[in-house]
Each structure stands twice: as C-alpha cells, then as structure tokens.
Amino acid sequence: xxxxxxxxxxxxxxxxxxxxxxxxxxxxxxxxxxxxxxxxxxxxxxxxxxxxxxxxxxxxxxxxxxxxxxxxxxxxxxxxxxxxxxxxxxxxxxxxxxxxxxxxxxxxxxxxxxxxxxxxxxxxxxxxxxxxxxxxxxxxxxxxxxxxxxxxxxxxxxxxxxxxxxxxxxxxxxxxxxxxxxxxxxxxxxxxxxxxxxxxxxxxxxxxxxxxxxxxxxxxxxxxxxxxxxxxxxxxxxxxxxxxxxxxxxxxxxxxxxxxxxxxxxxxxxxxxxxxxxxxxxxxxxxxxxxxxxxxxxxxxxxxxxxxxxxxxxxxx
Length: 317
Description:
- By secondary structure, the protein is an alpha+beta fold.
- The protein has 2 domains: about 1-95; about 180-315, Immunoglobulin-like, CATH 2.60.40.
- It has 4 helices and 13 strands.
- It has a 6-stranded mixed beta sheet with strand order 2-1-4-13-5-8.
- The radius of gyration is 66 Å and the shape is rod-shaped.
- The N and C termini lie far apart (about 165 Å).
C-alpha cells in the first residue's frame, strides 16, 4: 500500500517538473520576443530618420521591405506562442473540434383501424293467405231482333257543272339559262353554273324579230387586267360587224358605243366590283338596232386584278 502511494506521488512530482520546464521555456521565448520587438522598434525609428533624407524611389523600396518584415513578425510571433502551448503540434490541433452529426428520428405514423360494419337483422315478410272469391254463373236471356223493311231510295239527277278555265299566264322577264361557250382565264372550258357561282351573272333571252333574226350571246370569256368589258359583235357566218351600237347600262346611267373594224368595243366598268364573289355586278350589255339577248350582272371580281367576263354576240337568222 505504501509502495503504491510512493509511486503515485513520484509520478505527480514528475508531471509538475515537466509542466514547470514548459512554463520556463515559454517565458524565455516571450522574453526573447520582447527584446526582439524593442530592437525592431528602435531600428524602425532610426530607419525613419535615415529615410527622410533619401530619394523617393529609395523610400518606396524601403517601405516595402519594412512591410514584409512586419508581416513576418506578425506571423512568426503567434506561431511560436501556439507551438509552445500545443507542444509543437500547431494551430490545427488547437482548433480541431469534433463536428456533431444530426440523426433524424422517424416520425410516428397513424395505423388505420377497421371501421365496424352493421349487419341488419332479417325481417319477417308477411305472406297473404289465399282467399276464395265466389263467382256467379251468367244466365243467357233470349232477345228478338227486328228485321227492317226495305225502303225505296230516290234517285236524284246531278246537274251539269261548268269546268273553270285556268287564267292565261302573264309573261315575265325571268332569266332563261342558255347554253353558251364559257372559258376561264386559263382557257379551261366552264359552264353557266360556274358563271353563276363565281360572278352571279346570267343571260336574259331576247325575243326574235319578225323575220326571226336576233343577236344571241354565244360566248363568255374570263379576262384579267383591263378595267373595261369588251364586247364582240359577229354576223351569222362569224365575221366581225363594225359600226354596231352596243349599250352598257347600270342603275345610275348608260353608255352607248359603236364597234370598231374588228367588231369589238370596250365599255367602262370602273368601280363596279363583285363583293362577295357570286353576288353579281351592276353592268348589263346588249346590241342595239335589232332583237338581242342581254348579258346581266356583269362586273369586276373583288380582290383581283380587275378579273371580269368579256361577251360575244352573234347574229342568228
């Protein structure tokens, strides 16, 4: 027992000696550091005095050197103190601390419980008891059926009635479709149905003269570009008829011009646009000096380069 106490006391005294030695070493280093600082301050003062009498470039260079010395002293002094306190292991050992870690704990979850169900009790359904219904037997009663006596039916003679005569229909100027040659602007054959859907134009059939002659519309040709409608007039053989008067009429007025040597005449249609397509224009064309068909509802298609129909009249004997 005494031996153990002696060993523990000797170990404690050894530790005290080691600690005292470290303290003396630390104080000696501080003392030497203080002497070095005083020496540097004195040298700095002398350096400042000497630098005042030097050129500007030399002063700048000496200032840089002085700043480097201050930085080295500022780094070496704390390093020496920390090394003495940590037995040479440095700043990393002094500042190293364990980083705590956070472990999330699971949240409790609700366990659904089953809902009890109610089972209805069976009920007794009353069953009606059969009942007997008494029936009476029907008794047939004989009856006498009278027989009607024959009667004479008088015969009445029907009076004659007058048969009404239907009134004579009054002729109207209803447009009658005529088979004419129709071509679009690409020389593709068309028909009057295409003319009606695209332009809304139609041909009014005229009544022949006493000798049976009449100028019929034989061709409609689609043209784009000019703002005039061109009309050709031909004889029965298809040759041009110069000097024939052609009338172009519209609700506000009319224009009458004669055909040239080629049997054609151009009549103005400026401003008469068909909008929307198929709604018909306001121009009508016919040949004067005899019976003639009339080309109705002519005009320029809207949103085009004055696209319209030119008309050809030919004399039919």
